[in-house]
Specification:
alpha+beta; 7 helices
Amino acid sequence: MLVEYDPRWPESFTLAAAELSEIEPSWIVEHIGSTAIPGMAAKPAIDLAVRVGSFAEVDDRFESLASLGWLRIARGPKAHRVLVRQEGPRRADIAHFFTAQQWETCNQRIFRDWLLTHPQDAARYLDVKRAAAEAATGMPDYTARKTAVVQDIVDRARAARGLPLVDVWET
């Protein structure tokens, strides 16, 4: 489930981001998730945050996205769009699309920024991820085992920015 940090992940992000930017140059694309944190073990899938003007932009460009292997997921968050790209049976890239209004308050970016600047919390999160990966019976269980720590870190990061506290896992 988890692999040790791969120094090629930033390059993989850059390639995926360039493809998305070719589809729509106005989109802003950032590397999020554990693969964006140097030294962090992670599932080997590159997570991207994409700022769009509206979700209609994503829908209007879906054919172009699909031609590059991006697919809709069957179930996902309601507050933002998610597309995935597979390499065989595993997800290689996961693009999270947020509107401009959501961008500054999206938990994925806030969490990444906090971990990049708070090494003790990054180490704590890594310990929890490893324990969750060892004990989990599948992805939902793995996610559930990390939720309390992720919630605590996001709560502190949001409070530091003067933002209201919200649940970390969108349904």
